[in-house]
């Protein structure tokens, strides 16, 4: 399946009319039609990204990036299966999607030369895949890839979107510092903040860009 077929599949799965997808992507319906059907058309990455996000899909899966083996819908289904198994095997109650104890970032192996120049120039050295919708207000969807600049000074990371390891689980959240405690905040207000002592947290770095910025 090529990127155009994946894009059509994402729109079909969304159940949205093409006119609404075009509106959300800030393009005309005619442009959307050409992108989806005209093989000679070579739209910009920004256009593809906006269409993918309008359909609720991550652009990495649309473009067939090797780190995105599952679509956003498939990731959602996988998490539902995991929750069901947790309940069936452990007898635990189903966790609500906003429970903050669940990690929302997966480390992705990237070589230095594979980091886009724009983001490498910003200091990016690592990549993580976001695994929930807590960062949607920032334009980062479930399944999107974010690039991280290493940081060790908590003071420099205050107020920024960061990746931290809390009890060996990676989180992508906005960081607030209050005395001797850290507060991780999700831009999506459905997710409750996470509070922890500074000694419990290992700062990986701050997010300097995402895959959809590359064009």
Description:
With 215 residues, this protein is of the alpha+beta class. It has two domains: 95 residues, lambda repressor-like DNA-binding domains (434 Repressor (Amino-terminal Domain), Orthogonal Bundle), CATH 1.10.260; 118 residues, Umud Fragment, subunit A, CATH 2.10.109.10. It contains eight helices and eight strands. It has an eight-stranded antiparallel beta sheet. About 5% of the residues have low confidence.
Give the ordered list of helices and strands.
HHHHHHEHEEHEEEEE
C-alpha Rg, in Å? Answer: 18 Å
**CATH-wise, what's the superfamily of the largest domain?**
Umud Fragment, subunit A
CATH architecture descriptor text of the largest domain: Ribbon
| CATH topology term of the largest domain | Umud Fragment, subunit A
Helix count, DSSP H or I runs of 4 or more residues = 8
Q: Can you summarize the main beta sheet?
A: 8 strands, antiparallel
Main sheet: strand order: 1-2-3-8-4-5-6-7
Strand fraction equals 15-25%
Helix content: 25-40%
CATH class of the largest domain: Mainly Beta
Overall mean pLDDT stands at 81
Amino-to-carboxy terminus distance: 22 Å
Outline: elongated
Low-confidence parts lasting 5 or more residues at pLDDT below 50? Answer: 92-101
Number of strands: 8
